[in-house]
Each structure stands twice: as structure tokens, then as C-alpha cells.
Amino acid sequence: MAGDIVDNQGRGETDWQWPSIHPEGRKYGVIAGGLALVFLLLFDLSFIGWPLVALTAGILAFFRDPERIIPQDDRAIVSPADGHVCQIVEVEPPAELVGEDIAGVVGLPAGPVTRISIFMSVFDVHINRSPIGGMVRRLVYMPGKFMSADLDKASDENERQHILVERSDGVLIGFTQIAGLVARRIVPFVKPGDMIAAGQRVGLIRFGSRVDVYLPSGTQSKVLLGQKMVAGETVLAELGEQLLIEGVSQ
């Protein structure tokens, strides 16, 4: 059940259940399912009806919204997206997240930081979650192109939405939802001034995309290139921790 506490000592209970469908996707599922019934039952056109049934199932699967077990550790920065790690690089944070904005809200400091990029295919869950708990300080939408989201330049040229969250102790985390080749809309669930918890749902990107996370200075990735991420559960990094992690591809 959502909200139950579980731990790595076997305490707590959690049962598998069919994931709910986010309201954003229910209308598309209803439309596709309704058309499938029309062609199957009224017109007896199975060569159109059955593909529409498959499309309905695909839409419902795309907008699935499973519950997640969020680590209760103040040091943890959790993954904001399902998918796989496609880049881990040292970069300057986006200008939209750096320094004071016109309202005087302090942003990320200038200087290179580690950026972890997570690519979501159309088969991944597309509900995005906050890497940390705190207050939403910025929500900046930037129009742009719709190139493949796994390209490096997608961070600067694609349609995107920057989110800045500040913890109660002043730690700032910036992350960016990036539309991809097929994605055509970024849907936010939060606004500046909202208080959110680590792992809380903050938005979605429709039909294949990417999320970039900018780690605070002095914090390094705990994940590897190609590693599978689970939004709200996988720990990307621990605040202030620097370590070398190596893996073997096989």
C-alpha cells in the first residue's frame, strides 16, 4: 500500500499490484479504445479494430504510474526518471538555473558539475519524480527542437523544462526534462513555491525523452553508463560523497 514504510531488514509489506494509469493518459486510452470497439462491433473491420486494441494497450502502458519505494536518507539523490544512463559528464549548469533570477531567487553556482543524463524509451514509465525534497524555486520552460534525446546537444537545443529544488538546509538540485524525437509535450505537476518530497511526482514527458540531473559540487555519481534507473528508487548520488565506481561490461 502507498505510504507504508519498508526497509532492507525485511520490515514492512509491499505487494505487487497493477499500476494505475495517470489521468493525463486516460483520455487517450478511452479514445483509442472507443474507436477499436466501433470498428470491431459496428463495422466488423477487424483489420482496423485489432490494431486499435493494441494501440490502446500501448497507450495505457505508456501512461502507467506505479508506486515506488522512496529511500528515506537525507543524503540520497534519487533518480528522477526510469530509463538508462546515457551520459555522465562534467558541464556548466544551464544558464536558466544559475545565479539570481529576476525575482531574486538564488540559483546554482557557476562552475562545472557532474551531469547525469537518463534516456527514457517509449517502453519506460514516463512519470518524472523529484531527486530531493524541498521547495520548488524555479520552473523554466524553454521552447526548442525535437532532436533525438540521446544526443548531447539536446540539452541545449531541444524543448525542455528546468526545475530547481532547494532543501531546507539550502542544498540546491537542478534537473531538466527534455523532449525527444517523438515527444511533443512536457507536462508539469508542480509550480514555484510548492513544497515537495523526495521521489514525489513532478511531471511527465510524452512519448520518449530524457532527464538531466546536475549534482552539487563535490558530489559524484554512484551509477554507471548504461545502468537501468528506477525513478524515485535508484540512488544516483549521496550528497558530499566522492568515490570511484568501476564496472565490467559483459
Automatic annotation (TrEMBL):
The keyword Oxidoreductase does not apply. One of its GO terms (biological process) is phosphatidylethanolamine biosynthetic process. GO terms for cellular component: plasma membrane. Keywords: Cell membrane, Decarboxylase, Lipid biosynthesis, Lipid metabolism, Lyase, Membrane, Phospholipid biosynthesis, Phospholipid metabolism, Pyruvate, Transmembrane, Transmembrane helix, Zymogen. Its EC number is 4.1.1.65. Coiled coil: none annotated. It is a peripheral membrane protein. Pathway: Phospholipid metabolism; phosphatidylethanolamine biosynthesis; phosphatidylethanolamine from CDP-diacylglycerol: step 2/2. The record marks 208-209 as: Cleavage (non-hydrolytic). Its cofactor is pyruvate. It is an enzyme of class 4 (lyase). The keyword Nucleotidyltransferase does not apply. The active site is at 209 (schiff-base intermediate with substrate). The chain crosses the membrane at residues 30-63. One of its GO terms (molecular function) is phosphatidylserine decarboxylase activity. Its main location: membrane. Heterodimer of a large membrane-associated beta subunit and a small pyruvoyl-containing alpha subunit. This is Phosphatidylserine decarboxylase proenzyme. It comes from Pontixanthobacter rizhaonensis. The gene is psd.
